[in-house]
Design goal:
Blueprint lengths: L7 E7 L10 H14 L4 E9 L2 E8 L3 E3 L18 E3 H20 L11 E4 L8 H6 L13 H15 L14 H4 L10 H6 L42 E9 L3 H13 L3 E5 L3 E3 L10 E10 L3 H14 L15 E7 L2 E2 L8 H10 L1
Antiparallel strand pairs: 1-3, 1-6, 2-3, 4-5, 7-10, 7-11, 8-10, 9-10, 11-12
Helix pairs in contact: 1-2
């Protein structure tokens, strides 16, 4: 990672093989304490979000390296590998992740890497076009930017929306482990440098009544107060509304599980229409109960990739056993079949029941 002072960066990493990295509330708080201890001497944090299997930090780099003599003795461990003169932000990030990993390995009695090998850092420079693939690789949504809208603002909004995109909460302000609650005035957290944001002309605070609780819904996330050099206060985040059809299947207590799934799904997206459900014979492994199959048409502001994440999250929440054979019994199976009028599931062409269910809700 190459950091230059005077720039904003989006820093992110996820669990190795997408494994969990935070197992309880104290883990989240422990990680934040380490961010403050190891990273804050180099940067100002302007946004953050910790998810069960990954994290995001948006920071402003004040300096890339610090002389060891400037650091408090307790703020950063020293090793013989480093020179006597200075230590770097890159090294500090490594210390953060290694020390956190060591604590979790001891807590969970596990071995091996906790995080992916390479932590990513993206400079949020408006003049450089950021390819949409970036948002997907950064575990997120592909956003449509208004003309002149800053990538910094978009990234802050994206980071705060992560728990909603992941289906963990309905409103971003409900997620404890994000700076969104500080932006909304629901908590007086100390990690975000609001003074920097104000000094740089990136945020307007009216009498320090920063963000009232009425702004706690996802639509603006308090970011209507962000006012970068390349946009006006009237700019808001633009996300297209998409239409999708989801194929549904179950052969374990199907009536109960499909009903529960619809309740969870309906809390995250707008359900437009539900097909009749058909009884079908199992495919591949025939020695199992018949399936109940159907389709659900929805409207959502989620990007396709984020909707697919939501569907997997619902399956996991309902106890889907992913170690079971692919065509074996399952309590719930959700597959994106149609996205904005386009068939995106090849099974559509070989399974008549799916064709029939899709046709019923189009």
């Amino acid at each position: 990672m190459n950091f230059e002072k005077g720039f904003f960066y989006h820093i992110y990493n996820r669990g190795n093989n997408s494994q969990k990295v935070f197992f309880n509330r104290e883990n989240y708080l422990f990680f934040l304490r380490k961010v403050e201890k190891q990273i804050s001497p180099y940067v100002s944090v302007v946004s953050w979000c910790l998810m069960p299997n990954h994290f995001h930090l948006v920071v402003y780099v004040h300096r890339n390296s610090i002389r060891k003599s400037e650091l408090d003795n307790n703020s950063q461990p020293m090793t013989s590998v480093q020179t006597d003169s200075e230590t770097t932000l890159n090294y500090a990030i490594g210390v953060l992740l290694r020390s956190y990993t060591k604590a979790i390995q001891k807590q969970e009695n596990i071995k091996g890497s906790l995080f992916q090998q390479h932590t990513q850092a993206k400079a949020l420079i408006d003049e450089v076009k950021i390819d949409p693939v970036y948002w997907n690789t950064a575990f997120g949504t592909q956003f449509n930017l208004d003309e002149g809208k800053s990538y910094l603002q978009t990234c802050i909004e994206y980071v705060h929306l992560n728990p909603v995109i992941g289906g963990i909460v309905k409103n971003a302000g409900d997620w404890e482990f994000s700076s969104c609650r500080d932006y909304l005035g629901l908590r007086d957290g100390k990690l975000v440098d609001f003074k920097l944001l104000e000094k740089e002309g990136l945020i307007k605070k009216a009498g320090l009544e920063r963000f009232s609780e009425k702004h706690s819904q996802n639509s603006n996330l308090g970011i209507q107060y962000i006012n970068s050099h390349s946009m006006t206060q009237s700019h808001t985040m633009t996300i297209n509304k998409n239409t999708a059809i989801i194929g549904v299947g179950s052969n374990l207590d199907a009536e109960k599980n499909i009903g529960q799934m619809l309740e969870i799904l309906g809390s995250q997206v707008q359900i437009v229409k539900i097909s009749a459900f058909l009884i079908t014979k199992p495919i591949g492994i025939t020695n199992q109960p018949d399936f109940t199959n159907g389709a659900v048409k929805i409207e959502t502001e989620l990007d396709r990739s984020d909707l697919e994440v939501l569907l997997k999250t619902i399956e996991d929440q309902m106890g889907r056993d992913r170690s079971a054979p692919k065509f074996g019994p399952r309590n719930i199976d959700l597959d994106l079949a149609v996205w904005n009028g386009e068939i995106v599931d090849n099974d559509y062409y070989t399974r008549d029941f799916l064709k029939k269910s899709v046709a019923e809700v189009i």
